[in-house]
Design a protein that fits this description.
174 residues; mainly beta; two-stranded antiparallel ribbon; 1 helix; elongated
Amino acid sequence: MKRFLPIVMFLMTGAMVAPSANADLVHRLTTSTQLAVDAAYTSGTRIGSTYTVSGNNIKVASADDHFGKIVAPASATAASTLDAGTYDINTAGSAFSFSESWISGDAVNPIGTGVDVTGGVVADMPAYGSNFTSHGGVAGNLAGTITSAGVMTLTAGGAGTSATGQFVSEITVR
């Protein structure tokens, strides 16, 4: 028994030692800026005149009358107009329904008018129902810097510009 006591003590000592850990620690710092100069723009589409009518048990008042109608413009650049009609109930005392809708279209702007772009800024656009005009943006004072200490400075630019700064701190334990 005395012979085995040192071996048992040695085994007990080895069992009490804490296992060692192996871990990697990664710390990453990243800074970035993004500067962009996009086109300044407006969007547009000329819309036409539209007239719609629907109903039941409705008629024009007399043989010389009509439901509403679109009248061609007097000039090539003017918008169409509506000539409203004269209506009457077809069968008196019976149910009826009537609906009409009128959208006055855009006049035509002469070529070379309606859009002013100065220094990349769209100052005005055609007076259409929907418009699209594009011109290059203006960098102006657009700037972005990052110092070695991680200090970011972003300066706004002119029309159509954007500046984005980002700082990322990432810690990974493996």
